[in-house]
Amino acid sequence: MRTTLEKLGYQVEIACDGGQAWSALQAPGAANLAILDWLMPGVTGPDICRKLRGRKNGPYVYVILLTAMDKLNDLVQGIEAGADDYITKPFNSQELKARLRAGRRILDLQHELLAAQTELEIRATHDGLTGLWNHGAIIERLAGELDRATREKTPVGVILFDLDHFKQVNDTYGHIVGDQVLRESAHRINAVVRPYDLVGRYGGEEFLTVAPRCNLRSAAEIAERVRKALSATPVVTPAGQLLVTVSAGVSAATVENMRVASALIDDADRALYRAKELGRNRVECDGKVTSLTAARTASE
Ligand code: GH3
Ligand code: MG
Ligand code: MG
Question: What pTM did the predictor assign?
Fold first, then answer.
């Protein structure tokens, strides 16, 4: 069988008994089509089918059971155990070839289906323009982080960013340039936050960052890094170099003051409003104001 399969262009891995077959099928990069003898020492073919179908994750493995002609009556049991097809012994290579082709067709379809599902999941949770989490997804992530923070007794920081005078960019240079500025802003935010911080597009030119394990001050420091990353270098567009600034409002849930997502966002929004009122291109915090603004003036 190995020779026949190799002639057909398949990469073949041989297992000497059921136990070995089961280990091989669990290994990373394992085969996705298995031809299993019904009776094997230790673990039988149908046993492996049941184990495979009982897995919570892992790729789909297409299973062909090998069975002797006189065991054909047992087939129902094999199919019920999770086998996809069967071949009777001694096998005929033409038949094997045809059955393998059918198996590949199913596996290809399965692969396409999974790819389409992944694509749909990404589209449902991500913003098309910037690639960031979308409005619904970032709020859901924030709620998830708050649940975890409550269990683990850690803080969570929330930062709401809003580009300054962004309407002017659109009005002066057009929406295409505006879109480019939004993409570049998203890129710069992502570049300065920590890998496990979450960044979403909350609205048109508003971004929401969730900073797990950050108290008000640490979150404000992240916001300040983002503010600097934007104001330090103009965005290069076909319309020329545009200096873009951002204002930020920061809030934090702490062990002593745990809040739900909407309350945290409201608090960050109020701080953001103050940042706008106080002249934009600045970070304001909900509650005790840190000395970040002073630090900023000193370093610039
Ligand atoms: P402020 O400093 O007070 O925030 O001023 P602003 O001009 O940024 O505020 P405003 O909320 O008035 O304007 C936001 C603008 O963002 C209005 C809208 O045209 C623009 N906008 C929202 N979504 C998009 C988008 O997807 N693409 C582009 N190009 N512009 C967008
Ligand atoms: Mg806005
Ligand atoms: Mg704005």
Answer: 0.79
| Tokens matching residue 254 | 């702490």
Is there a catalytic annotation at residue 205? Answer: yes
Q: How far is the CA of 169 from the centre of ligand 2 (A)?
A: 13
Identify the structural domains of the chain with CATH numbers, from first to last: 2-125 (3.40.50.2300), 135-285 (3.30.70.270)
pLDDT, tens digit, for every residue of 59-96?
A: 899 999 998 867 777 788 889 999 999 998 888 989 99
**The pair of three-digit structure tokens given for residue 231, joined into one six-digit string:** 């104001």
Q: Which of 127, 166, 246, 273 to mutate to test the pocket of ligand 1 (most atoms within 8 A of CB)?
A: 166
Ligand 3 centroid–CA 299 distance in Å is 25
Q: Which two tokens stand for residue 153?
A: 């007794």
- CA dihedral in degrees (88, 90, 95, 98; nearest 10)? 70
